[in-house]
Amino acid sequence: MTTTALKHVESIDRTAQAHWVGDGFPVKSLFSYHEDAAANDPFLLLDYAEPYEFQPANTPRGVGAHPHRGFETVTVVLQGEVEHRDSAGNHGVVGPGDVQWMTAASGVIHEEFHSHEFTRRGGTFEVLQLWVNLPAVNKREQPAYQDLRAAAIPTVSLENGGTARVIAGELFGATGPARTHTPMTIADLNLAAGTTTSLNLPEGQTTLLVVRSGQLMVNGGQSARGVSLVRLSRDGDAVELAAAEQSAVLLLTGAPIGEPIVGSGPFVMNTESEIRESYREFQSGRMGRLPA
């Protein structure tokens, strides 16, 4: 007989402060590699742009050309549109339900703006961006890009009326389309009010719940509401979520890489010397340039 042990709640953080990234992304940083890097391994950073109403404009808002090296960015668009362009020649518009998975690896220059169409018409904008660390052996590989359209992301209807969109890994018998370098599960959960959902999760993995809206009771105990981050123990293989109201939650589980994490701005490597080298290569143009 197989038994389950609940992962216990290690912390619930509701203190994320809002700030702007460029002029197009009003975000709350729920966690960052600058703090608790080992506890969140392999996840480095999570920015959540809450629903924000943008008026129509002539010039796209966003973030101009900037570099990344040593990790991956995962951009989940919930409302609005993001247009991406990078030095590896990738270009595309990511709309509601779509996910852009960019592997910076050895280095890439990119820009992220509201799409021209969204800029012209205006509307509600809501986006999540997650940074995922790479093992040292993969940090020097060539950049890569996954354009994961909403139609390719399986949505599981839960017995209690909620849904789970599985972006990476496996959950509720569905397998997400994202290719990952290390074992992980990323899923976007929408839980109906008054329902309880049980999740079977891997033993030994980092487990984070990013609550975007609503109110959850975790394992029948502590409450998480509004925009908050719940960190669960690596011990255990299950969690029970009771939704007191309609709740939207991003589930992250991942096998810790267990290597040194040294970061500065847009670079995350394993040593200080690698960070200094990254700045030199970026400043000399060896990470590439955006096409004209």
Describe how the helices and strands are arranged.
Layout: E1 9-13, E2 18-21, E3 25-31, H1 37-40, E4 43-54, E5 62-68, E6 71-79, E7 82-86, E8 91-94, E9 99-103, E10 108-114, H2 116-121, E11 123-133, E12 144-148, E13 155-157, E14 163-168, E15 170-171, E16 174-175, E17 184-191, E18 195-200, E19 206-218, E20 223-225, E21 228-232, E22 238-254, E23 262-264, E24 267-269, H3 272-283
Antiparallel strand pairs: 1-21, 2-3, 3-4, 4-11, 5-10, 6-9, 6-11, 7-8, 7-10, 9-12, 13-14, 14-17, 15-16, 17-22, 18-22, 19-20, 19-21, 19-22, 23-24
Structural class: mainly beta
- The helicity comes to under 10%
Q: What value does the average pLDDT take?
A: 96
**Biggest sheet layout:** 9 strands, antiparallel
Order of helices and strands: EEEHEEEEEEEHEEEEEEEEEEEEEEH
Summarize the structure in short:
The chain is mostly beta strands.
Can you walk through the features of this model?
There is one protein chain. This protein is mainly β and 292 residues long. It has helices spanning 37-40, 116-121, 272-283, and strands spanning 9-13, 18-21, 25-31, 43-54, 62-68, 71-79, 82-86, 91-94, 99-103, 108-114, 123-133, 144-148, 155-157, 163-168, 170-171, 174-175, 184-191, 195-200, 206-218, 223-225, 228-232, 238-254, 262-264, 267-269. The strands form five sheets. Strands 1, 13, 14, 17, 18, 19, 20, 21 and 22 form a nine-stranded antiparallel sheet that branches. The protein has a seven-stranded antiparallel sheet with strand order 2-3-4-11-6-9-12.
